[in-house]
Each structure stands twice: as C-alpha cells, then as structure tokens.
Design goal:
This protein is α/β, with parallel strands linked by helices. The chain has 16 helices and 25 strands. Helix content is about 30%, strand content about 25%.
Length: about 550
Amino acid sequence: MPKSKGALRLIPLGGVGEIGKNSHVLECGGDLLLIDAGVMFPEEELHGVDLVIPDFSYVYQRADRLRAIVLTHAHEDHVGALPYLLKELGRKVPIYSLPLTIGLIEPKLREHRVLKFAELIGVMNRQRINLGPFDVEFIPVSHSVPDSASIVVRTRAGLLFFTGDFKFDQTPVEGQPPDLNHLREIGDQGVLLLLSDCTRVERPGVTPSERVVGEALNDIVREAKGRVIMTTFASNIIRLEQTIDIATRYNRKVSVVGRSMEDNLRVAADLGYVRAPPGSIVTLDELRRLPLNQAMILTTGSQGEPTSALSRIAMGDHPAVRILPGDTVVVSATPIPGNEETVARTIDNLMRRGATVLYPPVVPSIHVSGHASRDELQALLRLLRPTYAMPVHGEYRQMVHYRSLAVETGVPCDRVILADVGDVIQVSPNRVEHDGAVTAGSVLVDGLTVGGVTQVVLRDRRHLAADGIVIAAVALDRETGRLVGGPEITSRGFIAPSANSVLERGAARVRRSLQRRPEGEVEPGYLKGKIKDVLGHAIFEQTRLRPMVLPVITEV
C-alpha cells in the first residue's frame, strides 16, 4: 500500500526493457487504474508459442479494486492482452479510449467471448474523466493508427504524463498537427513524472511524416504496368486510406485480402475514419475480370506470419490469389524485432514467383515509423519540463540513451527512472523512487492455453527441435515380465550418419540389458528408465546427439 495518503504506486507490468506487452498499473488509496494491456510476439526460441502477455497477477489479486482500463491506441502491443485479462478477471470493467480504438477492440473481445466483461466507453480528445483518485485526460497525438492519445493522469501526488506511441507529424494525413501550446500549458501545470516512448531515441532528427509514404506509393502505382499488391499493418488505417485514394486516382479497383484488414477497414469506414470513393473497393471475383493494370490488392502479412494472406500467396498456397508476371508487391512496413527472418523468407518466395518486390531499405520512403525520433523526444521534454522522467516502450539500451537525452535537456540524472518489469515506483508530491518489486513477468499463450507453457515444456520443445525423438517399443509377458518382443525403434527428427545402424545397435544393447534384468516383478517405471538410459547412452556414444527417448511398454 502507499506509504502516505498523497502517494501512489506505479508498476510497469511490461514495456520496459522490451518492445511490446505495454501495460502499467497505477495504485492510489486502494484503487487501481490500468493503462494499456498489450502483447509481445514470441522470439524464435519460444517454440510453438503464439503470444506473450504480461503477468497480471497483481491485478487479479485486486480485481475488485480495479477502477478502469485506459487505452492509448489500438495496436496489439497495447491492447492485444485484453481478452486474456478480462477472461481471468471475470467481472465487468470500464474500458476508456478514443472512438476508433473502442471500435477496433470490440470485435476482438466478441471473438474471444469476453465482450460481456467489458463496458466500452468512447471519449473525445481532451476529455477529462474522473476515476476515483485518478483524473484522466486524453491528449490527441500522431501515430500510425488514428485516435492515438497520450494520457494525462492527475492525482493527489502530482501529474503523470504517459506519451503512448507518438510522433510530431506536422503534416498529418489524418487529424491535426500536434498542439504544442496545449502541451506547454500542461508543462506549466507542473509534470511530476513523464513516461515517454523511447523506441527511436537512437535515431537523430525527426521521424518523417506519413505523407512521405503517400508520395512514394503514388509514384509506384503510377509506374506499375501490372497488378499492385500492397501489405502493411492491418491497423494502419491512415496508410490504407491513402492507398485506396491513390488506386482510385490511377483508375484501379481495390480488393482487400485478410480478415483483420477487412474487419479494421469496415470498422474505420463505419466510424468515418475511412472515406473510400464509391465503387473503389470490389471483391476478388470482380477484380479478376479487370485488366491487370487496373487492379490492386491490399493484404495482411507484412510481418511474414506463416498463416497470413501474403505468406500463402508467396508460397503459392492461397486459394484465390496467385503471383502473376508483372506483379509489383509493396511491403510497406519494417519487421518487428524477431520477425526479420520470416519477412525475408516471404520476400524471397515472392521474388521466386516472379514478382517485383519493393520494401525498406530498397525503397526507404515506402514506410515511416509512427514513433518520435531523438529531436522530437527532446522537444517534448522541453515543452513539459518534467521533474522526473521514465523511458518506456523500449529495450534497455534505448532507455539508457533516453536517460542521456533527458539529462541534456535539464533533467538531473538521478531523476531519470530506469525500471524493470514488476518494479514498484513510489510517487509522492516531492519524490519519485524505487520501492521494491511485485510478482510480474511474461505469460505464454499457446493456442487456447494461457500460462500452461512452462519452462519445462519449452525445454522439451527445444530438445525435440534440436535432436528429435526416438521411440522404443517393447513387449513383455504379462505373467513373467520377460521380454517377448522388441525393442522396435522409430525416430522423428533424428538425423545422424548411418542412423539406421545406430538405432539397430542401440536396440541390440537394450535387448541385452533387459534380458539380464533381476528376477522377480519389476515396476514399469524401472524398465522405462532402463530403456532411456541404455538407448540414450548408446546413441550419444555413436553420434554425440541426445534425442528425446520415449519408451513404450506393452504387456501381452
């Protein structure tokens, strides 16, 4: 609990020292406020894992005290964990955000059958809502999805400013340029703690405007002789609308392939965020009847996801779309860390099928980031003039670089907080400091299983991936326990020189070992252990490999 009446506790459950699963708990006077609930995509060594979400144990244990969930914007690394969080909470929770974010998460929650646990409340720019000890204001910012917001939280301890994901786009395609005067006014009120996006702190200068991408796409579509297939993040509504407008300009019709992109465009159109010209979007069947130079396809798969539409097109496995001579494929995205290999593989496969593929860095202007670069981060520091600063949404090196930037801007080094997941940051009117830690970390999602993939399971999966599996089946006499058949050896994923002879010699050694076993009744567990030891040792002697050995004992 807070040390004093005016104090509050800030606990990052994710998004510090890592890219993804952004989520922060604020606790004051016994009440909790959760800002964002994101996912992180698994690294390659997490075999079979679909998603990584924050460990919300701290919130679950205080579920009745959770006032609300506040969302900065609709990207998965900020909202993707909501279905799992709500399912575990098992109670209705108010969720506040700007209208498009609410619109985009609603079908996700419905699909996971947890919509009944969410009271979805859309708010307006600069609207302030009172949530017990928390006074929350939504400040509009530019990002790669409309209706992105920074969050101002006013408390008895002081004012906290969560930037969310942002950049200072002076010529935005959607919305207004940043209101620097309003930010300066907030700074005049006294910002106790700034929690700032630091993803691009290593990049000097200013992040280019989204209009740069529109100009590059315009040139590509104008020059293309055949179909244009463009992929980007399904949530990048601004870029999708720009692309549809450009296609219309050059007498092309557009088809959308990929459920998430179709759903997002439909929601955005219903809410007035996409204004596609009448007749500009058609079905794939209608598109096939048009000349190739009048066709464009928007598709999911910019991160090389194996089951995405673009990956299936690249593999020649999509039921409705095949790469044709003269196709131009535009990959309007950069790989999320960890996805580099899958994206490269998709591009390679598209090129093998004869497509011209344009992607960063071959055409750098085909994608711009939605995150502020170094000069913009410094400008925000100067506008808000925080007493304390804390970098978030970044890996540790980026947090360290942000600390140097904040010091250059006038924040004393000892007032820049570098937090780890689960750290408790005690915030009082005169001081912000570390105050221990709570149970936190990562929970792995595998299909419908949440948290069931333990380190033991991962160890077994790594073992199987590295050396494969060998199955040894033996038959024993039910009455005497004597070996009457086998062992019959089969293997999967086990590769070794002269593998058959290796397994045959291993089987012979197991047979001799079982024939020499002690008289009397023997537990099956003992026999399984014996088979594993003898066969595993025999294989290792000959190959220096350690496949998983799985004994199967049948009584006859």
